[in-house]
């Protein structure tokens, strides 16, 4: 016989979520403890509430595992990206890109070039993580070699990879946001285009002016020192671009991301043996353990001593715990209560847009994973779009903007941890320079208030059930 369950009260919800937020903040900012432990403890807080409300433990455990299963595609991609980063450094691929970048890119246009290169890479591959772990790392190295502040460079990298990721039909965030909202993928992308392109142009102008400040202040002696150190530590060759071209071409042709990125890691091993003259064991080991280098130039040692599957295990744990936490929030009824309470305050497209963006951001804070945000936000907000007669592509657009573009802003989220780790810049240091994210969110609110880019339900019908969840194409 089914045991009777109750919905939580607002007071209970506030206590539980405030408890998690307190744990997350104290663990990361005060106690220097890993966020994974805070998420682990938070599971039992929500489970305790669930049992108090009449749920049995077995159902709650099932809810957590079902939540985790929705993010397994991201976990596989994250593992592959770790292997690729390690072997591409060991194989001289990333060092080669840095070397030729220092040789070719002029400092005055470097930040603009970083934005464009990273956005094109993410757009063609459908993965912000893969773009940041390859082109992003290379641009960080070039930027430091040119004497440009790394948080600013990281801001250009993140602006580029998130722009490309959220407009790529290969992206998991695009597929997830559209499918959970009940919108066809290309309809979802079309709905994002006007605001995305406007914000991209404004962001490009901002990074162009920022880059001009450093055009005449570059110490070319330092650049030459860096290039010499790279030449002494690696066999630099134009062949470094071959694996990059192959991997991007395969992803652009819609080949499955996990095997393609893993194939790229294998190419890194081959390049390490063939061009860097490493033995088989050390070349293969670079796929697991972070690459280590002592070149005598601190920034080269910092930017290139990374990669490997082992370096990604912390982010894997965040995704697992975050998705499980989201599944528990759904099963216990917290999402239903929040959705019902919010409905009373939502009366038009403007405050619905603001509410959706804010809900997606909160989901990143409490769920600690972009997947949690993109899964939960449509569940919470969909009834309000239907009630006001608005097309679901507005829901998918706002969920994507609020979920994807803010995911790297939360220090304990999957994206915050990954981006800080792979770029070597703390989350709160690069946060002020995530100009595309801020611009896009602000424009979304402003345009909606002005009555622009508002779609009604009478337009082209959605073709995807909002209960479906397509398998992710690539990790973000």
From TrEMBL:
Keywords: Antiport, Cell membrane, Membrane, Transmembrane, Transmembrane helix, Transport. Pfam families: Na_H_antiporter (PF03553). The keyword Cell membrane applies. It comes from the Bacteria. Its main location: membrane. The keyword Phosphoprotein does not apply. It is a multi-pass membrane protein. It is found in: Cell membrane. Residues 160-451 form the Na+/H+ antiporter NhaC-like C-terminal domain. The chain crosses the membrane at residues 12-31, 37-54, 75-98, 104-125, 137-163, 191-212, 233-252, 258-275, 309-329, 349-374, 433-451. Belongs to the NhaC Na(+)/H(+) (TC 2.A.35) antiporter family. This is Na+/H+ antiporter NhaC. It comes from Kistimonas scapharcae. The lineage of its organism: Bacteria, Pseudomonadati, Pseudomonadota, Gammaproteobacteria, Oceanospirillales. The gene is nhaC.
